[in-house]
Amino acid sequence: QVQLVESGGGVVQPGRSLRLSCAASGFTFSGYSMHWVRQAPGKGLEWMTMISYDGNNKDYADSVKGRFTISRDNSQNTLYLQLNSLRAEDTAIYYCARDGDYGDPRPLDCWGQGTLVSVSS
Amino acid sequence: QSVLTQPPSVSGAPGQRITFSCTGSNSNIGAGLDVHWYQQLPGTAPKLLIYRNNDRPSGVPDRFSGSKSGTSASLVITGLQAEDEADYYCQSYDISLSAYVFGHGTKVTVL
Q1: Distance CA B77, CA B19 (A)
Q2: CA neighbor of B68 nearest in space, from B53, B88, B51, B50
Q3: Which of B3, B4, B13, B47 is surrounded by the fewest CB atoms within 10 Å?
């Protein structure tokens, strides 16, 4: 079945970097655009970034533009999120999600279990 | 601050019908863009509940339904059950922000 598994989270000091991964299985990864969404403790969902199926198009929320970079390796069925210059307010669970088949915009139809990033000195 | 406004909480007794809204603007819902709804059970990842305003993914009970009119959308739960206690988020796209947007979320409590 469709599965997304995030990894790479942890505790990191302010100003440092971290790279998150999302391993996809159960579907043709190279045929789907992908998203990263985060959720701060006790807060709502915040969309951060999306990458097209071929990696040629990327969109970012203003809150992370210039600091975070999305990428993908279709040969490895893996999505990445590079987090640079981390701040305390970046502390959150980070979810990867698949862009669905129908709708404008398309829904996020499959989500991973999330990986926790904690930014603290 | 989200551009999609939802009530923070809604409650109902088992078996009741509840409804709650997601209010946007002419740069998102009112621009004819679709609204999707997600259910997030405590301690779990979000799950797609309603897509394209009123369609249900396979496996979602038909007591969940959605609608859209103008700059707003609504989610209805009929025959409320204890297992429906969760946070519910609406989502669309905002043309002015060039970004996907989520509502603040509505916490549903079953009394």
Answers
A1: 6
A2: B53
A3: B13
- Whether A109 and chain B come into contact, CB under 8 Å, resolves to yes
Interface touch A102/B33, C-beta < 8 Å:
no
Q: How far is CA A36 from the centre of its chain?
A: 3
- SS3 (DSSP) at A106: coil
- On whether any CB of chain B is under 8 Å from the CB of A103, the answer is yes
Which of B87, B95, B100, B104 should be substituted to probe chain A, the one whose Cβ sees the most A Cβ atoms within 10 Å? B100
Per-residue pLDDT tens digits for B27-80: 999 999 999 999 999 999 999 999 999 999 999 999 999 999 999 999 999 999
* Residue with tokens 């740069």, as numbered in its chain: B27
Who contacts A116 (Cβ-Cβ below 8 Å, separation ≥6)?
A9, A10, A92, A93, A94
DSSP for B31-76 reads: GT---EEEEE-TTS--EEEEBTTTB--TT--TTEEEEEETTEEEEE
- Of B81, B87, B80, B88, whose CA–CA distance to B22 is shortest? B88
